[in-house]
Amino acid sequence: MTLLRFVEETGSTNADMLALVEQGVPEGNWLRAGRQTGGRGRMGRAWESPVGNLYCSTLVRIAPGDPLPHTLALVAANAVHALIAPLCAGQARIKWPNDILVDGAKIAGILLERFGDAIIIGIGINVTHHPTGLDRPVTSLVAQGAADAEAGALMERLAQLFAHWLGIWRAQGLDPVRAHWLINAHPTGTPMRVVQPDGEVVEGAFDTLDRQGMLILRLANGESRAIHAGDIILT
Ligand SMILES: O=C(O)CCCC[C@@H]1SC[C@@H]2NC(=O)N[C@@H]21
């Protein structure tokens, strides 16, 4: 059963969900905040969180037989893409591992954090606002022409879409989730630069996503490189 909770303001819905997980909260719970004062992004970055955008977190308790936990990033990306794509004037695509871009500008981000058998999945969607002054293009649903988009209504639809893709991941495994992700991600051959967590930068072209959810990069010399973590810059 899905349970949606709302708070006007918090530090981070991921941090709050972590506290709920420690109290034993079951799967299916969602927490949404109107604004965050300490929103967390990937790679230790902050996530600007003014009123008007969607900030929410849920949890999945890993059960025996589940696919690899980190592949929940693909479940979340499929759900967020399905929510956003029909509302945007431009083309929405998934960027590995789990950003959603519209015509190359970031509109949503997903942050997975693990606590014991629980994976916390935090989702931020730019609805009415997007940050300015970044070194990368960003956009929002309103900037994409979805003038009526509203965070609360989006939250309900997102919870349904996430439950749908989680059910497929559990019942059928990663393959159908991966296949759908590939249809909606950057096409094979897309040039990209990968900044790995240790700072190493690798240039290449997107080849595919392997069955562990790793990005397979084709290097200029024809070799393949499997990337398990990093920041992707489309070049
Ligand atoms: O860097 C990214 O792309 C991931 C951003 C994730 C932001 C969301 S907003 C709701 C949840 N709470 C957080 O503190 N972060 C995530």
UniProtKB/TrEMBL annotation:
The record places domain BPL/LPL catalytic at: 1-170
One Gene Ontology molecular-function label: biotin--[biotin carboxyl-carrier protein] ligase activity
Does the keyword section mention RNA-binding? Answer: no
What are the alphabetically sorted keywords of the record?
ATP-binding, Biotin, Ligase, Nucleotide-binding
Reaction(s) catalysed by this chain's protein: biotin + L-lysyl-[protein] + ATP = N(6)-biotinyl-L-lysyl-[protein] + AMP + diphosphate + H(+)
What is this enzyme's EC? 6.3.4.15
Annotated PANTHER family: BIOTIN PROTEIN LIGASE, BIOTIN--PROTEIN LIGASE
Concerning NCBIfam families, the annotation shows:
birA_ligase (TIGR00121)
Q: What is the protein name for this chain?
A: biotin--[biotin carboxyl-carrier protein] ligase
